[in-house]
Amino acid sequence: MTWDAELTRRLAQRHADNLFRRRITLTGAQGPRITTDEGSYLSFCSNDYLGLASDPRVIRALQEAANQYGVGAGASHLVTGHQRIHELLEQALAEFVGAPRALLFSTGYMANLGIANALLGRGDLLIEDRLNHASLIDAGLLCRAELRRYTHADVDAVRRLLASSKAVRKLILTDAVFSMDGDLAPVADLVAVAGDYDARIVLDDAHGLGVLGVGGRGSLEHHSVSIAPPVILMGTLGKALGTFGAFVAGDEALIETLIQEARTYIYTTAPPPAVAAATCEALRIVREEPWRRERLRHLVQHFRRGAGELGLPLADSDTPIQPIIIGEPQQALAVSRGLKKTGVLVTAIRPPTVPPHTSRLRVTFSAGHSEQDVDRLLDALSGHMNSAH
Ligand SMILES: Cc1ncc(COP(=O)(O)O)c(C=O)c1O
User: Fold this and answer.
1) Which of 42, 101, 198, 210 is most enclosed, with most CB atoms within 10 A?
2) Residues 77-131: pLDDT tens digits?
3) What residue owns the CA closest to ligand 1's atom 16?
4) Domains of the chain as residue ranges with CATH
């Protein structure tokens, strides 16, 4: 079979399995209401949890910094791409999460790859929750350490793996808030087990930072765990902070090792400095406007109450990620399409992003939604969930 014929066959198979993915093309800003080339929708599928992606103050910070710094960083951090505003953002992030130091990465995906790459190699042990985000799984595959996966949130399984390993360096990697389920990792127990076995633990707080904890400091604040060894924190900036990029926070030796050895830090262009300036402003808003987190919590409760009354299958989640597990891909697609016809957008998430037979609507909320928006979603769901069966 020729190369082209093989690709065409694979694509046809994807269609037949209802696993073909399509992009929605937006023609305006991210927010609760979006415009696409097909129309306008009330959207429940972004990670812009605090509604900061198009906040006028964040936009202004980006514009003003672009006037000062230009657009592209023009080089990697270790050549001439590292600007004072990157430095200021790292200091602000470190202070925010209570760590000695923080290091910016271009994306969360790259940060996760970089941590595993810098800290582990052949003969080391890497332990991952089965439901971890793809970037953590890929980090494990690329770093050449032995990769073991444990049943979701099973702390005893982690303990057994650590106890039976002879590896000198052992690292646990977990989503702190699971990206497709919205539930929380047993952070305090995992940190304790890591400590017992002289292992370290990476908490990927992509979906907790800015959202959880009274001050928005994320999962560590929520679980009252301090950021000190064995904890390594990875946070992303493209979700609740509304901008782009990521950071790793931890102790001095860790951060300096990442600068020296993480290939996804060294061999790539530094993020645009204006984005760093926008993130500084977003971080100020995260600190100073706790009402955004309160609004989110209120909306989540309102949704769960309403969904419960409708008999919808709710997940065990109190976060703004509220999946409705449907089952097979074609059923999830049918509900998503039905909702779209009523002007409500919730994308269907299918394997391999989620395990087989757990295709779902990944409903997410933003502080920019209103109670009426949630009621409209509930109304649309009550009318279309029957198309799932
Ligand atoms: C848990 C988790 N980790 C890491 C990432 C990757 O972050 P980024 O989008 O900055 O690459 C995501 C989502 O994108 C995520 O959900």
Assistant:
1) 210
2) 999 999 999 999 999 999 999 999 999 999 999 999 999 999 999 999 999 999 9
3) 179
4) 25-50+290-388 (3.90.1150.10), 56-288 (3.40.640.10)
- How far apart (Å, rounded) are the C-alpha atoms in residues 86 and 149? 35
Helix (H/G/I), strand (E/B), else coil: 103: strand
Annotated catalytic sites, by residue? 179, 207, 239
CA 245 to ligand 1: nearest atom? 10
For ligand 1, atom 4, which residue shows the shortest CA distance?
Answer: 108
- pLDDT tens for residues 320-343? 999 999 999 999 999 999 999 999
- Residue pair 133/179 in contact (Cβ under 8 Å)? The answer is yes
- Give the C-alpha separation, 168 to 313, whole Å: 44
Q: Are 264 and 111 in contact (CB under 8 A)?
A: yes
By the 8 A CB rule, do 245 and 271 touch?
Answer: yes
For residue 139, how far is its CA from the centre of ligand 1 (angstroms)?
12
End-to-end CA distance of the chain: 39
In the 8-state DSSP scheme, what is residue 183? P
pTM over 0.90: yes
Q: Which amino acid is at 230?
A: P
